[in-house]
Design a protein that fits this description.
Layout: H1 14-24, H2 42-47, H3 55-61, E1 68-71, E2 88-91, H4 99-111, E3 126-129, E4 135-139, H5 155-160, E5 168-177, E6 180-181, E7 184-185, H6 191-209, H7 218-225, E8 229-233, E9 236-241, E10 248-259, H8 266-275, E11 288-291, E12 293-296, E13 299-302
Antiparallel strand pairs: 1-2, 3-4, 5-10, 5-11, 6-7, 8-10, 9-10, 12-13
């Protein structure tokens, strides 16, 4: 990695990644409008997915989300030249069919040669991780690719691997979460708006990239979510200085402990750890993790 002064540099790579992906699929157009290959084009499927013609689905899901999510680290202060970066990418549903284009785009992105920018890193290897964090090599430094080693997540199997408590959970938000309510960003967070936003995100991803709708009573789940109480919270608003040209990155971070009957919400909460939430979710924002709550020395801790 070359010296990078902006600690949040990676969170501002949206336009560069989009340009790299367009080059990776060998698209010479500046727009998808009027393209005769748009229906089968990986770029269109990734960045310009068509809104469904079903008016009821449009009301539920609105604009299609991107079918990928990056997990980016905050960079250490300079000098950081020669450091090793590790970041993750999660692909949803049908996006896995374009896996090799994502790899090619990442190679171009790190080299930055598609926009005449200096390279900021080179890819040493790509690994696929399972539920427990075990890894398999998918691409080595020599460029050989092993797509059969990709690990495919299942929501059902994911839930089986977790040891969370049915009536209490800690949620730790690691990168700024920006949720809107009546057009304005929420600056205080309770469980109900958090989970309802997650319902919309996950059901939309399932509809556009999973081949169908999730057969769940969202109205009933939303009503039940209001009964989940906040036991303690240190959620707070932060402002990050973003990558030049991307504006300020801001939102809610911190940790809160929620209590109540949580079992029906865990499938969404578990998937949300990979899918993120809110504005900029595909490029590393709105990332959170679930933690178990333990009682120690008369106080509440999470791990």
């Amino acid at each position: 990695m070359r010296n990078i002064a902006d600690s949040y540099f990676l969170f501002g790579l949206k336009s560069d990644f989009e340009s790299a992906f367009r080059l990776a699929v060998d698209c010479r157009r500046s727009s998808c409008d009027g393209c005769p290959s748009c229906d089968s084009c990986p770029f269109r499927q990734t960045f310009s997915q068509s809104i469904t013609s079903d008016p009821l689905a449009v009301k539920r899901y609105q604009k299609p989300p991107y079918p990928f999510m990056f997990d980016f680290p905050i960079l250490t202060q300079t000098p950081n030249r020669g450091g090793i970066l590790e970041f993750g990418v999660t692909l949803v549903g049908s996006a896995i069919n374009n896996f090799h284009y994502y790899l090619a785009a990442l190679v171009l992105l790190t080299r930055q040669n598609m926009t005449n920018k200096p390279a900021f890193a080179s890819i040493l290897k790509v690994e696929s991780s399972d539920y427990r964090g075990n890894r398999n090599l998918v691409m080595g430094e020599n460029g050989d690719i092993y797509p059969d080693r990709l690990f495919l997540f299942s929501a059902v199997e994911l839930q089986k691997t977790c040891e969370l408590q049915p009536n209490e959970v800690a949620i730790s938000i690691e990168t700024p979460l920006r949720l809107l309510q009546e057009g304005r960003p929420l600056r205080e967070l309770s469980f109900s708006p958090f989970i309802r936003s997650l319902f919309r995100r996950i059901s939309s991803l399932a509809y556009y990239y999973g081949g169908g709708e999730m057969e769940l009573d969202y109205k009933w789940l939303s009503s039940r979510s209001t009964s989940i109480e906040s036991r303690c919270s240190d959620f707070h608003w932060v402002d990050w200085n973003g990558h030049p040209g991307s504006g300020r990155l801001s939102g809610i971070v911190g940790k809160g402990i929620f209590s109540g009957d949580l079992l029906d919400f865990y499938p969404f909460l578990l998937l949300g750890q990979y899918f993120h939430m809110g504005k900029g979710a595909s490029f590393g924002l709105g990332k959170y993790r679930l933690e178990k709550v333990t009682v120690s020395d008369g106080g509440i801790k999470s791990r």
